[in-house]
Amino acid sequence: MITHPRTEELVESVRLWIDEIRPTLDPRNAFLARVAANALATVQREITEGPAAEAEAVGLMAAVLGHAGDYEALNAELCDGIRAGTYTVETPGLLAALTIMARRQIAIDQPSYKPEGTTAASSS
Q1: DSSP code for 123
Q2: What is the pLDDT of residue 117?
Q3: CA distance 112 to 124
C-alpha cells in the first residue's frame, strides 16, 4: 500500500531543513530563515492542535449562546453580541469561555508564552 506523508510531517520536514541550513546563511537570510521556520512551526501546531481547540470553542460558545452551530456562525454571533452589549461580563460562562479559547489559541500561536498566574502556556 502506498502511503503519503501527512501534511504535518511535510511541514515539520521543511522546518527542520531550514533550521539545519540556517547556521550557514548570512545574518539577514538566517533571520528570514528563522522567521520561516517559526511560521512553519505555527502551521504545524494549527494542523495538529487546531481541530481540538476549535471543537472545544464550539462547545463553549454554544453553552454561552444557548444553541448549537458551527464555529464560524457561533463566533460571528458571539462577537456581534459582545459588540452590541448583549453579552457582557455578567453573562454566565462568558469570561471563562473567552479565557479558555484565548489560552488555547495562544498555545498554538505562541506556545512559550506563559500568561500571568499560570505555570504553563496550556493551563486553563
Answers
A1: -
A2: 67
A3: 15
- Burial string for 83-121 (b: 16+ CB within 10 Å, else e) reads eeeebeeeeeebeebbebbebbbbbbeeeeeeeeeeeee
The answer, as to whether pTM is greater than 0.85, is: no
Per the listing, cell 498566574 goes with 117
**What is the rounded CA–CA span in Å between residue 44 and residue 38?**
10
- C-alpha cell, 17: 531543513
Residue pLDDT, tens place only, 78-124: 999 999 999 999 999 999 999 999 999 999 999 888 877 666 544 44
Rounded CA separation 64/51 (Å):
20
- Break the chain into its structural domains and give their ranges: 7-109
Q: How far apart are CA 5 and CA 73, in angstroms?
A: 33
How high is the mean pLDDT of the chain?
92
Collapse the DSSP code of 3 into the 3-class scheme (helix H, G, I; strand E, B; otherwise coil) and give the result.
coil
